[in-house]
Amino acid sequence: MRAYIAALSLLSFASVIHASTWIAVSTARFEVVTDCGESEARLLVTSLEQFDGAIAQSPGIEATSGVTKIYLFRSEKEFAEFRSHPGTAGFTLSTSHAAPFVLMFANGRAREVAFHEYVHVLVQRGDWKLPRWFEEGLAEFYGHARPAGRDKLSLGDQVPEHMSLLRGQPITATLLEEPLLTGSQGRYYAASWALVHMILTDPDYRSKTEELLKARPSDAIFKKAIEDLQLYVARPVWKQQTVEAPKSSINATLEAIPPVDAEFMLATLLLDAGQPQAARKRYAAIAAAHHNDAISAEAAGFSALSVNDRAIATRQFRRAIELKTSRARVWSELAMLEKEAGAPWQEVKPLLERIAILDPADYQAVYLLGIREADDGDLKHAVDHLAAAAQGAPGKSDVWHAYALALSQGNRPEDARVAAQRSLRVATTVEWEQRAATLLESLKRPQMASAVRRKPEVVTSPAWTTPKPDAEIRGRFLDFACQADPPRLRLDPEGGGKVVELKIADPKQVNLLNTASGGASIELRCGPQDGRPIRVGYRVSDGTVLELEFLQVHDLPRF
């Protein structure tokens, strides 16, 4: 009987694996993880390296440091489990455990999709504050780069499908506000692409780029640009640019991914992509195929986490560590669980230190470790860990702020000023703009060197006392079910009826941004809402709301 049950367990596990063989092909700048085979992986990673080299010579964008990971699926059916919007060929995802990465499937347009999504990665890593039409326009402009002879790429070619949506049709400023408002995603992307094309290639508009990026669609300069865009689209010939894109120096390495690691990878990607039920099925299959070992404990822990059973998840992750797991994500999740449960620093610190060794790219872990080390006066390790966190999360104002403080305490005033300036540039809330500006101003004063040696209030980061979201969603606020247990809010991220439901497990843990009262408490009207635009920061593992921000119309999301 036991042999029969074991056979069934292995059969269940094999059915999830599908007999797919996953590999990783890596270069200095990219890692393509795929089940499409070595030749397709090498072709894509080579194209991305060429594209990255071309960007350095191109207008409107610049490359940044770090390795970008792309998950390339052979099957659209399997990829469909991960995406939240039907028809999406690829998307970029950010979590608290990793730098932005890309998920996509091999649909014959893999290079185009990868180029497009890589632009989004660069924007997320950079310190640019771009309107969404400009970011999408850039992604479309560069996404349609094509080979132009040996070691060259052509930029700025007309895109027939975009042109067919624009020519002979009125183009208005409203069209650039977002597809939620216009009801036409296709024309939104087409108009964004065309406007960016005009800005980057027309000398008259190239000089007005900064003004246009700050303008609203209702501003006169933007309306004039839209009038000129109508004439621009009617032109029979558009300006193109050919840039060097050498590939001779590209060296790629190949690594086979063991089946159980591939399945863990897919299950965790589902969890990060906000698909906990699908993730739990995969974790359950892994657990069923292993007994009383680290793998079974890991899978059981993640399965419990997918349904927010934090007690079981904590117990299973502890067991996995006792059984000598080397899976960095296990250590990271346990550290966050212990921290949120109020465990003393002496118990959490060894977990964070282990993560810093196993996976330095887990910026949330090294960030938390760094700010506590700075608070304890261990500036050498604090600076190292906060530098790693800043590299992993270059768009996080709080990370750069903590890094600047540690540098200043370590008597590195020039480096501290650079970090504080970065904190100010990437700040997305009034609170962090004020904190960064105050720090930057104080660093200009000579007495700051001695003043920072006192433990400043901000060193004990809100991240240590309040859970932080690892994902966000933007859309229309539809309903607040305040009588539910726990209370739930519903929003429409597309404006087309696909409702997303998230829960408020503890109102005291929800940070309200840009509210009249300063965000001290939650004051929401129960029942149906008026459809106002909202941004919700939440925890992917269980859909718990941790941040709420009511947006202006021009802040609505890209899709």
- Percentage of residues assigned to helices: 40-55%
Structural domain count: 4
Total E-strand runs:
16
Task: Quickly give the structural class.
Answer: alpha+beta
Q: Could you list the spans in which at least 5 consecutive residues all have pLDDT below 50? A: 1-19, 448-464, 515-523, 553-559
Instruction: Give the quaternary arrangement of the chains.
Output: single chain
CATH topology assignment of the largest domain:
Glutaredoxin
**CATH domain class of the largest domain:** Alpha Beta
Largest sheet: 7 strands, mixed
CATH arch. level architecture of the largest domain: 3-Layer(aba) Sandwich
Q: How many individual helices?
A: 24
Radius of gyration: 24 Å
Q: What is the residue-mean pLDDT, rounded to a whole number?
A: 81
Query: In one word, what is the shape?
Result: globular
β content, as a range? 5-15%
- End-to-end gap: 52 Å
